[in-house]
Structure formats: structure tokens, C-alpha cells
Amino acid sequence: MNEVNKQAGNRWDPTLVNEDLAPTPPSKRNWNWWSYSAVWMGIVHNIVAWEVAANLVKIGFSFWQSFAVVAIAYGVAFIAILLNSVPGAEFGLPFPVLIRSAFGYKGAQVPVFLRALLAIFWFGVHMYIGSKAVGAVLSVAFPGWKSLGDYQIVGMDLNNFIAFVICWLLHAYVINHGMERVRKFELWAGPLIMILAVGLVIWAVDAAHGIKPLVSAPATISGGEFWGTFFLSISALLGTVATLVLNISDLTRFSRSQKDHIIGQGIGLPLMFLIFSLMSILVASGTVIAYGGAITNPIDLLLKFDHPFIVLLGAFSVLISTASVNVATNGVSVGYDMTNLYPAKLNFRRSCLIAIIIGALSAPWLWYDSFDSIGEVMGAIGATMGPVTGIMLVDFYLIRRQNYNVDAFYVRDGLYAYRQGWNIRALIAMAIGVLVAFLGLIFPSLDYLYSYNWFLGVGFGGVIYYVLMRSSIAKSPDQAERIDAAS
Question: Membrane-spanning residues where (predicted)?
């Protein structure tokens, strides 16, 4: 706590700050543009993103329609992430601290807790996905590997259980070495999966006897069904990065400058997401030609090659990319989110280790494969996180005018204290935003609205928050003066 005490001058409340939640000191702001490009390469190159994009072919879109969905979704995501990156880089603060400005130091625990739950949820899912890659490697390396499936433990075949434990240990190793290990891990984990993706595209082109058959196959849906599915698919793709839109400041707080994260994310986010998604679409189109149906999981496709070297290289790449995205997104997020809940007892490493333990105890092998539609799951995540995104953006750019009082984040009687730490206006805006985003699921007659769930959540959450805050400021000149003073 020496660094914290030095920054705080003993003014900050120790229950609201520790080393991980304090502003990042200049000595640790060493991430350059390549650091962010590599991190995003690692985030982009994961099986969930691959499957969501490949699923566009499976549900009946043509190549060019799929391209349009991907371009729109990640274009919107990039704008939102870039806007929410600025305060992290400017003030060196993580998401759980920044969110106190809108919700209050106690009210902030609500969105932080929800974000932590989602991170833990995805921790378990990605570890399970990674364990499948481990199993593919071991099945090639050890001829008797599959015979272990005759034994059961905690609802899993013994071979799958061993693979899951190995994947868990890999995550624990990377996480236990803190944020600097995350950065170094991403520098090579991200580019590695591109080798596999390029190889699969070459295979798809060869299987189709040229690229033209891959891009010229017609769509199998049209009319109202097409448009509803089109926008729902955009929401699903946004769902893959919706949580990152919220906590991107957990990464940009380490940026050397605003320019570094803007350039790095510009290369690593929209460009790499677009390239990687197009690769998955081309490969999925190739599997339709080669096998008569779209194969969306690259591990399933690798196993069809029945070539030990290809399976080993491919599965290892998938494992590394899965661990990469899990650590860079869910690990970083839950590390700060849970630390914010109990700053006196938890730090980044302890929080992450707790998260991967709970993620494992959630037994994803019992329920993940039963999901009927990955698009609906991603859409639900986007609908939940969208209103918080809208509130954060409105608070920083319109209410706070791009300025924060850093000291006020760490005291109980400052600008962001509101009423005993709660800003009821933000909670109301969030609740209404989530309700509107889910209207299409609640009322069957409004099911078409669910296709726009992320946009509705962001829009309604942000607008209602702005109206309530401006109304409050109009009624309370003292609060207006405090905000102006902080700006």
C-alpha cells in the first residue's frame, strides 16, 4: 500500500482503494500501440468469435450478407470501445472505479457484480472449450487416451476431466504472474492462431476448387426472416464484446498515451475482427461444400482431417488462443471487479484465482453443450451490458464533460457519494434500459424488438440517465456547481 499512501496523502478511504484500484502510476503506463494490437489479436482469435461468425453461414446467410453483419457489428463495437477507452487512459483508472462516477461508490457494486458474474461464467465456458483442445492433443499423443472415457468423475469422462484440469492449470499459471504476464503472453498467443486460421482458409479454397464457390453461394433466407435474423446477428456479435466495451479501461489505464491505445486498438479490433470473422465464414462455407453441412467448431473440423500433425498444431493453437482471450478479457475484468467488492482482502491475483475456481465449480461440461443458440446467449449478454455502457458514456461525455475528480472516487463524502453512496437515478436508468432490451423476449408480440436489444439498451439507458441527471441538477444548484467545479 506504499504507492497508494503516497498518491492519496492519507486522504483516501482504505475500504475504497488498494494497489490494484488506485490510479496507475506513470512508471507502469508502459503499454504501447503494439501491446494493444497483440492483446486484441488474442481477444479476437477465440472459438466463440469464430463460431458466432461461422454460424452466419449455418443459418442461411450468403458470404456477402455475412460480411455486412460482421462489418457493421464490429464497426459499432470499435466506436463504443474507443469512446470508453479515453477515461481509462486519461486518468489511469479501472472500470470498477470509473463506474462510481455514475452509480456512487455503493451503487457501482451492482453493475460491477453483474460484470463479475459474467466474467466468471465465461471463465468456466472458455476453460471447458480449451479443455477440448487439450483432449484433441492428448488423443493424438497417447493411443489409449480415449479408453479413459470408460471411467466417470464429477459427471465427466476421465479423459475429459484430466484435460479440463490441465487447461485450468494453464490459466492459473498465467494469471498468477499478474498483468505484465498477461501482456507478454498476448504478444505471441494472438499471432499463433492466425497460422491455423490461414491454413484452414487454404484448405477451404482447395476443397471448393477456388474461392468463387465460397463467396457466391446464395442465401437460403429472405424477406422478414432475413432482416430479423440480420439485426439479431449483429446484436449477437456485439454480445461477444459487450463486456469489453464496459471494462476496456482495465486495459487502457496502462497506455503510454491516448495515441497508443487508439492506434493499437484500431489495428487489433475492427481490422483483425473483420479478417478473422471472414476467415471463419470462408471455412464454414468450405465445410458445406466438403461435408454437406456447416461445421462451426474448428476442433471438430481438425479431427476430420485424421492427420496427427495437423490435429496437434491446430489444437495447440486453439488452446493458446482460448487461454489468451480468457485471461485478457475475463481474467482482467474479474480481477478488478472482485477486488473492488472487497479491496481490503482481495487483489488482482487472488480475485482471478477465485474466479477460475468458481468457474470450474459451475461445471460447464454439464450445461454448455445444451445451448440451442449461441446467438441468443450473446444477445442476452449484450442486452444486459448495453444500458451500463450508455450510462457510462453519457456520464463522462455529457455530464462530467470528460473530466473527473480523481480524489472523489476514493472518499465517502465527495462528488460521487450521492446519497450514502447510491445514485438511484443510474440504477433506475439501468433497470429501464435492461427491461426495454428484453421486451422482445418478455412479450411475444414484440419479439422483433429483441433483434435490436444492444442498441435499445444503450440508447434507453443513456437517455434516461441524462434526463434524470439533468433534472436533478436543475433542482439542485449546489450539485451543478460541484460538477462544474470538478470539470
Answer: 33-54, 61-83, 112-131, 151-175, 187-206, 226-246, 267-289, 309-329, 350-368, 380-399, 422-443, 449-468
DSSP per-residue codes, 225-274: HHHHHHHHHHHHHHHTTHHHHHHTHHHHTTBS-HHHHHHHHHIIIIIHHH
- For residues 258-287, one letter each, b for 16 or more C-beta atoms within 10 angstroms of the residue's C-beta and e for the rest, the string is eebbbbbbbbbbbbbbbebbbbbbbbbbbb
Average pLDDT over residues 353-382: 72
For 374, list phi and psi in degrees, rounded to 5: -65, -25
Hey, what amino acid is at 42? Answer: G
Residue 214 Cα distances to 109, 270, 384, angstroms: 48, 23, 36
Q: What's the whole-number mean pLDDT along residues 174-189?
A: 60
Give the contacts of 258 (CB within 8 A, at least 6 positions apart).
Answer: 86, 89, 90
Whether the predicted pLDDT of 187 surpasses 90:
no
The cell for 195 is 497460422
Helix/strand/coil for 287: helix
Query: CB of 247 within 8 A of CB of 333?
Result: yes
- Look at residues 278, 276, 251, 277 and name the one whose alpha carbon lies nearest to residue 265: 251
Q: Is the alpha carbon torsion for 133, 137, 139, 140 positive or negative?
A: positive
What pTM did the predictor assign? 0.82
Q: Are 315 and 133 in contact (CB under 8 A)?
A: yes
Whether residue 232 contacts residue 379, with contact meaning beta carbons closer than 8 Å, is answered with yes
Using the predicted structure, report yes or no on whether residue 422 has a pLDDT greater than 80. yes
Which CATH code for domain 2-486? 1.10.4160.10
Q: Supply 291's cell numbers.
A: 461435408
In which residue are the cell numbers 439485426 written?
Answer: 231
| Integer Cα distance of 112 and 118 in angstroms | 10
Do residues 189 and 317 lie in contact, with contact meaning Cβ atoms separated by under 8 Å?
Answer: no
Would you give the distance in Å from CA 226 to the centre of its chain? Answer: 27
- Report helix, strand and coil shares of the chain as percent, to nearest 5: 75, 0, 20
Find out whether 126 and 326 touch, Cβ atoms under 8 Å.
yes
Identify the CA nearest to 426 among candidates 117, 107, 118. Answer: 107
Contact present, 451 and 228 (Cβ < 8 Å):
yes
Residue 373 sits at φ, ψ, to 5 deg, of -145, 115
List all residues 6 or more positions away from 163 whose beta carbon is below 8 Å from its beta carbon.
131, 132, 134, 135, 138
Give the Cα separation of 67 and 230 in Å (integer).
11
Give the model's pLDDT for residue 487.
46
Torsion sign across C-alpha atoms 166, 171, 174, 175? negative
Q: Which of 183-197, 249-263, 447-461 has the highest mean pLDDT?
A: 249-263
